[in-house]
Amino acid sequence: MKPDFKGRRALVTGAGKGIGREITRCLVDCNASVLALSRTESDLESLQEEAGCEAICVDLGDVAATREALAAAGDVELLVNNAGISILEPFLEVTVEAFDDVMAVNVRGVLIVSQIIARGMIGQGRGGATVNLSSQASTRALADHTSYCASKGALDQLTRMMALELGPHNIRVNAVNPTVTLTPMGEMAWGDPAKSGPVLARIPLGRFAQPLQVAEAVGWLLSDAADMVHGVTLSVDGGFSVS
Ligand code: NAP
């Protein structure tokens, strides 16, 4: 059933490409008023034309700039922490710079954005809902994904902490954990069939995810249909995590 978010304002981070762009389109289609945040201006311009959303251009790795940009975000009731990056390196070659960059966006960025938006939700007194874009990589080791896997494991725990401490304010917090999804990031990490083949072989449904399949799960978790669902990490992985 399609949710109706009429009268609700949503913030989607990493909205310029891939899963975030699809989530933005879906939320607009469900009558939400969407504030799309990303870091490439041209992506946001084309998204605004396509979906009719508002836009904020900022790099979530920059804490001061993020705080300043979100100061005027307005009354957000639905938050999707989708922005994420992946830098592939074998474990023995992981650099401090790459590790810090991945953590800064995938974990610290979620903390900073969520603190700002949750304070606003509490101030409005109407509660809200948040979905964090985690990954199958939060619980499974994937070759060359040390920084990314560590960041998504941390994000699952950040999700649980947010659920624990924001739940009493009627702010629901959950995570969605997709398998490989066909986006620019998915292509970068898994475009080589020699790498993606073994992962695909571990998925009982025998296919990778489409951005729309992830966006539908996010939409459900944000909706009143999921009113009692709180603190979960929802696999959207074709069964990858059963083995
Ligand atoms: P994507 O294709 O690389 O798109 C990510 C979007 O986020 C881009 O618009 C990017 O902007 C933006 N972004 C990245 N870093 C940012 C920053 N510091 N500040 C603001 N915006 C930033 O990625 P995706 O595949 O859609 O992934 C979306 C989320 O799903 C991520 O959290 C990812 O970890 C997760 N996920 C992806 C997969 C997969 O296989 N694709 C699987 C599981 C989970 P720029 O292009 O301008 O940098």
Descriptive overview:
This protein has 243 residues and is an alpha/beta fold. The protein is 45% helix and 15% strand. The protein is built from 8 helices and 7 strands. It has a 7-stranded parallel β-sheet, sandwiched between helices. Strand 5, helix 5 and strand 6 (171-178) form a beta-alpha-beta unit. The two termini are 30 Å apart. The mean pLDDT is 98.
Keyphrases for this structure?
243 residues, alpha/beta, 7 strands, 45% helix, globular
Mean pLDDT: 98
Portion in helices: 40-55%
Structural class: alpha/beta
Provide the succession of SSEs.
EHEHEHEHEHEHHHE
Distance between the termini: 30 Å
Ligands and ions found: NADP nicotinamide-adenine-dinucleotide phosphate
Low-confidence stretches: none
Total count of helical runs of at least 4 residues? 8
Strand order of the largest sheet: 3-2-1-4-5-6-7
Overall shape: it is: globular
Quick one: how many beta strands? 7
Rg for CA atoms: 17 Å
Short description:
The protein is of the alpha/beta class. Helices cover 45% and strands 15% of the residues. It has eight helices and seven strands.
List the helices and strands and how they pair.
Elements: E1 9-13, H1 18-29, E2 33-38, H2 41-51, E3 54-57, H3 63-70, E4 78-81, H4 96-124, E5 128-133, H5 146-166, E6 171-178, H6 184-190, H7 193-201, H8 211-222, E7 233-236
Parallel strand pairs: 1-2, 1-4, 2-3, 4-5, 5-6, 6-7
Helix pairs in contact: 1-8, 3-4, 4-5
Bound molecules: NADP nicotinamide-adenine-dinucleotide phosphate.
